[in-house]
């Protein structure tokens, strides 16, 4: 006794998997894209070095290298206490 049912010649148990593979091939051919929002571009502009700040930092570096930079220990300690007491 044969139990084949109707249209058994077109039966393919791997049909769904083959279709998924074909869809992945179609999707895989797309090129990658990168889009930067206007807000992100503004943030990038803010990361540029400010000339005034750069000159100030360079001045401090020169004073440290030459040994003319003096540290105010009391002010430094107070700032550390203020920072840690906020938490």
What does this structure look like?
With 87 residues, the chain is mainly alpha-helical. It contains four helices and no strands. It is elongated. 0% of the residues are buried. The mean pLDDT is 82.
- Categorize the overall geometry: elongated
Task: State which percent range the strand residues make up.
Answer: under 5%
Main sheet properties = none
Q: What's the count of strands?
A: 0
Look at the helices and sheets and give the structural class.
Answer: mainly alpha
Topology diagram in text:
Blueprint: H1 15-28, H2 38-46, H3 51-66, H4 73-86
What are its keywords?
4 helices, 87 residues, mainly alpha, elongated, single chain
Give a quick rundown of the structure.
The chain is mainly α and 87 residues long. It is built from four helices and no strands.
């Amino acid at each position: 006794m044969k139990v084949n049912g109707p249209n058994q010649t077109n039966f393919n148990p791997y049909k769904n998997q083959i279709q998924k593979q074909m869809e992945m091939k179609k999707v895989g051919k797309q090129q990658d894209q990168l889009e930067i929002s206007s807000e992100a571009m503004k943030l990038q502009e803010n990361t540029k070095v400010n000339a005034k700040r750069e000159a100030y930092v360079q001045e401090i570096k020169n004073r440290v290298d030459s040994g003319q930079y003096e540290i105010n220990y009391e002010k430094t300690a107070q700032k550390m206490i203020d920072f840690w007491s906020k938490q």
